[in-house]
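User: My collaborator sent over this chain with a note saying "see what the structure looks like." That's all I know about it. Can you take a look?
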Amino acid sequence: MAKYIKRPIPVEAIEYTLGLEDGFDDFEVATKSGLDIQNYLCPIDSGKVPFVKTLEGKHYISKGDYIITGVEGERYPCKKSIFLKTYALLSS
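Assistant: Without extra context I'll predict from the sequence alone. Here is the result:
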């Protein structure tokens, strides 16, 4: 199998804060949509689950997730542990 390396393309990213989401679902709706409620850490105290609309559909945001804006303006959440292993700060 061939191996590849990501090209060094700058992206914008910020750790999630209220206002970066595209919307909210009730926990019941999120659970029916596949959210693993047993391992989910909600980043806000509203009783709602924030999400962003990605190219693949709706993705729920967990506590500590980074919201990345890709090369074509697409947005998606990324777990903090993965983000810190994958990305390095260019400038702030």
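A starting point for your reply to your collaborator: The CA atoms of residues 2 and 8 lie 19 Å apart.
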